[in-house]
Task: inverse folding
């Protein structure tokens, strides 16, 4: 009896190991998009903007001190997983990123997660999930309109806006295939071009160019900066942090000549 149990256990372990070692099947863009939407169906139905994510944190946050240069980093998963306290030690920087979000969702929570926190600067990094269609088909014109709404709301509340470029993506690894398939490099370039043009026409906004510092000679995200082709690793954030700090200093008017 014990021998049978032992054999069964070994066979089960071997089967599990073999399954775990199998590569993740590559999905078509439509399949990958549908898989994501199904996984988020309850959230998208009950709290589309995910206002509940930071409700308690916002309520417990004290107003900024008179000399405090508070900054809100506002975005999707690339912001959400960024450990700001490690890359900006001692800085009054607040993370309000939510994984998977698109600009329509972010626009819903812009008042609660940005305006009501009274920052001097907001650093916005978004767009990649709009291109992927996480919450439905999105025309570039509609993404751009949402960016313009961010800027106008911030300006009305005396908050300087730093628009971050959409990051490049790559398909160099097995785990990057599905994420890459949903994100057209051409649309990334087009959206970044529009952002640069918008900032040039609106002096109260600044453009933060992560893209140029992270793209390789093929026009894709440098392989060493993200294992899954989308989310920066430590090396990626190490490049992004000083660029963000320079943009924030410029927005605050504290940059050195």
Result:
């Amino acid at each position: 009896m014990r021998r049978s149990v032992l054999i069964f256990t070994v066979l089960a372990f071997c089967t599990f190991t073999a399954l775990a070692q199998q590569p993740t099947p590559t999905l078509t863009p439509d399949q990958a998009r549908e898989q994501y939407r199904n996984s988020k169906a309850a959230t998208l139905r009950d709290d589309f903007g995910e206002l509940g994510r930071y409700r308690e944190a916002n309520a417990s946050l004290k107003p900024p001190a008179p000399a405090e240069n508070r900054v809100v980093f506002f975005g999707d998963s690339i912001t959400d997983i960024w450990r700001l306290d490690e890359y900006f030690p001692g800085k009054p920087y607040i993370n309000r990123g939510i994984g998977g979000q698109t600009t329509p969702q972010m626009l819903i929570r812009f008042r609660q997660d940005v305006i009501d926190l009274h920052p001097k600067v907001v650093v916005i990094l978004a767009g990649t999930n709009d291109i992927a269609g996480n919450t439905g088909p999105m025309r570039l014109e509609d993404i751009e309109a949402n960016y313009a709404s961010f800027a106008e709301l911030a300006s009305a509340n005396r908050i300087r806006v730093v628009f971050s470029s959409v990051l490049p993506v790559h398909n160099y690894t097995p785990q990057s295939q599905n994420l890459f398939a949903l994100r057209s490099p051409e649309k990334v370039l087009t959206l970044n071009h529009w952002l640069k043009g918008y900032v040039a026409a609106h002096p109260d906004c600044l453009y933060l160019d992560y893209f140029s510092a992270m793209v390789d000679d093929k026009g894709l995200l440098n392989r060493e900066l993200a294992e899954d082709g989308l989310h920066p690793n430590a090396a990626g954030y190490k490049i992004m942090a000083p660029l963000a700090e320079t943009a924030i200093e410029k927005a605050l008017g504290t940059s050195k000549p």
User: Anything to note?
Assistant: The first strand starts at residue 71 and ends at 75. The two ends are 80 Å apart (CA to CA). Residues 26-252 form a domain with the Rossmann fold fold (CATH 3.40.50.1110).
